[in-house]
Automatic annotation (TrEMBL):
Domain spans labelled Aldehyde dehydrogenase: 5-458
The protein, known as: NAD-dependent succinate-semialdehyde dehydrogenase
PANTHER family attached to this UniProt entry: SUCCINATE-SEMIALDEHYDE DEHYDROGENASE, MITOCHONDRIAL
NCBIfam families assigned to the protein according to its UniProt record, in alphabetical order: SSADH
Source lineage: Bacteria, Bacillati, Actinomycetota, Actinomycetes, Propionibacteriales
Keyword Phosphoprotein attributed: no
Record keywords, A-Z: Oxidoreductase
Listed GO MF terms: oxidoreductase activity
Broad enzyme group: oxidoreductase
Source organism: Nocardioides eburneus
Keyword Membrane carried by entry: no
A UniProt-annotated Pfam family: Aldedh
């Protein structure tokens, strides 16, 4: 129990269910103190040149890269993903620090003529101010650096609240930030129960921006709370990614792409393939190839050699996957790979392929967030585009075809922020990541990512 705090909470290893750490649940007063520290740190940090901030971020990048193996193991222990994927997440997470270290040097304003000859328009870019990041458990490192990188580059300060399932990665990143020379108060991590400390983060008037990655349901709530003090908000919310496999696609490429888009992170990804529409002529061939590959995936604890599918985050996640499969099979779908809790028990679930899935089933309407691929048969392009868009979500979609005209037409018609074309891998630091509809607001990464942390100030300069 920390002084003045509200007790403690435990973190467990999803592979075993064993408790691996006990951390303080901070009180709202303690969280307020970290917001106030971020506010006090703001003038000095934002007054540094972009080049000076860049050097600090670059040192943070170097330290994360140097300690990649330790960080990856921490991720496996608290989150469960296979070690090879945890290593890849650290490379991905570090890439945002490197990228935004560079972008810090490129913040620039504008000067141009006003309609009056004696007057100039001068536009400055200024940091938004104190920011809050609220992050999920599925990518415990990357979801933090993707926010803290651009925030610190822009001259903002930030308080991070990591998911309570995965706070250890966040604390390790903060330790490395401190060693890199990030001044006290510029980046803080607060741990605790969202219901207790959330209102302080979303309600404190000193906080000027909330950047959230998580479910649409929680995102809506945070937006409502942030509205009371008119905070700036960036939201990366849920998805229900459709995959469209046309009969002119290269089948092996499509199988590979779908495996990547689904089974990365054991299916626990907001851009994960949630429903796969396959054109009639290649449906059976595609389903057979996919079932064979899926059945061969190695399931086990993330630290074990060769493991490709880890445990799910908690037992509620296992129940949701089982419920989606049960609803589908009760309504006529068939299991052609996996289908049940894995023999290892606990939170391990067999990678699964379902065929004869129909559009109205629960599994195509809700985000499953687990290792299940439901295959729906389709005939016509118009029909499949309508099905793909029949959702409140609009994060990612994937399409497989060799026809260039169809590629442009379908990519334009899909109501999502991102479209993978003949690939299941779309995330990287140079591309703008984000959704439309109820999948979110704003973009992370790319040359646009820093804009989320900058405000424009316009000076009408008479006589300039
Ligand atoms: P997931 O479904 O990935 O667990 P959530 O949307 O439930 O995603 O949670 C994402 C993050 O939002 C976590 O850090 C969680 O603790 C936090 N969170 C959940 N509810 C609230 C809330 N009411 N206020 C502030 N943060 C919250």
């Amino acid at each position: 129990m920390t002084e003045g705090g509200s007790g403690s909470f435990t973190v467990d290893d999803p592979a075993t269910g064993h408790v691996i750490a006990k951390l303080p649940s901070l009180s709202p007063e303690q969280v307020r103190a970290s917001v106030e520290a971020a506010h006090r740190a703001l003038p000095e940090w934002s007054a540094r040149s972009g080049n000076e901030r860049s050097q600090v971020l670059r040192r943070w990048f170097d330290l994360v890269s140097e300690h990649a193996e330790d960080l990856a193991r921490i991720i496996v222990l608290e989150q469960g993903k296979p070690l090879t994927e945890a290593r890849a997440e650290i490379v991905y997470a570090a890439s945002f620090l490197e990228w935004f270290a560079e972008e810090a040097k490129r913040i620039r304003g504008e000067i141009f003529d006003s309609p009056r000859a004696s007057n100039r328009v001068v536009v400055l870019q200024e940091p938004v101010g104190v920011c809050v990041a609220i992050t999920p458990w599925n990518f415990p490192a990357a979801m933090i650096t993707r926010k803290a990188g651009p925030a610190l580059a822009a001259g903002c300060t930030m308080v991070v609240k990591p998911a309570s399932q995965t706070p250890l990665t966040a604390l390790a990143l903060a330790e490395l930030a401190e060693r890199a020379g990030v001044p006290a108060g510029v980046l803080s991590v607060v741990t605790g129960r969202a219901s207790e400390i959330g209102p302080e983060l979303t309600g404190n008037p000193l906080v000027r921006k909330i950047s959230f990655t998580g479910s649409t349901e929680v995102g809506r709530r945070l937006l409502q709370e942030a509205a009371l003090t008119v905070k700036n908000a960036s939201m990366e919310l849920g998805g229900n990614a459709p995959v469209l496999v046309f009969d002119d696609a290269d089948v092996p490429t499509a199988v590979e792409g779908v495996l990547t888009a689904k089974f990365r992170n054991t299916g626990e990804s907001c851009i994960g393939a949630n429903r796969v529409y396959v054109q009639d002529r290649i449906y059976d061939e595609f389903a057979a190839a996919l079932a064979e590959r899926t059945g061969a995936l190695k399931v086990g604890p993330g630290l074990q050699d060769g493991v490709q599918i880890g445990p799910l985050i908690d037992s509620a996640a296992v129940e949701k996957v089982a419920e989606h499969i049960a609803d589908a099979t009760e309504n006529g779908a068939r299991v052609v790979a996996g289908g049940s809790v894995h023999g290892l028990g606990g939170r391990f679930f067999e990678p699964t392929v379902l065929v004869d899935v129909a559009p109205g089933m629960l599994i195509t309407r809700e985000e499953t967030f687990g290792p299940v691929l439901p295959l729906v048969r389709f005939d016509h392009e118009d029909q499949v585009v309508a099905w793909a868009n029949d959702t409140e979500f609009g994060l990612a979609a994937y399409l497989f075809t060799k026809d260039a005209e169809r590629t442009w037409r379908v990519a334009a018609a899909l109501e999502t922020g991102m479209v993978g074309i003949n690939t299941g891998l779309i995330s990287n630091e140079v591309a703008p990541f984000g959704g439309i509809k109820q999948s979110g607001l704003g973009r992370e990464g790319s040359v646009h990512g820093i804009d989320e942390y900058l405000e424009l100030k316009y000076l009408a300069w008479e006589g300039a």
